Fold this protein.
Amino acid sequence: MTAEPKIKYKCGCTGKLVPGPNGLRYPSRCPEHDEPVILKRKNKNNAVTCKCISGKHIHRSQLEAKHCNILFSDLQDGRIKDYEYEKGFDLYCEGEKIARHYPDFLVTALDGTEYIVESKGQESEAWKMKSKLFQVNYPDIKYLVWKK
């Protein structure tokens, strides 16, 4: 008799539980449907951890993974030059470093300009403060918030 895997995963298309393959901590695709696999685990904001279709990132929410999928598609289709996931930015107040902010995505447009894409379901007070500080520290980088 085969033992049940301790961690179970859900198929992104059906929600059906899929066992993780031996030796892999996180299966990237459902073997039956070839869809991204989602961990059946929720984080502190009650969001489900999820992998995007690029297979490069494990996201803190399905919304964030969805936005990554859009950016990945835009990159493949040549609508953007590049994007980075969670690039860190130092935040300063009166010349002193006070925090570091990791927005979800730094996108480089075809003309070379950069902008931030932040996926937000719930806006915490800490995020509100950091996003305002970011805009003061980096006024040339546009800050977009994508919601549901």
Summary: The chain is about 20% helix and 35% strand. The CA atoms of residues 28 and 55 lie 7 Å apart. Confidence is low (pLDDT under 50) at residues 22-26.
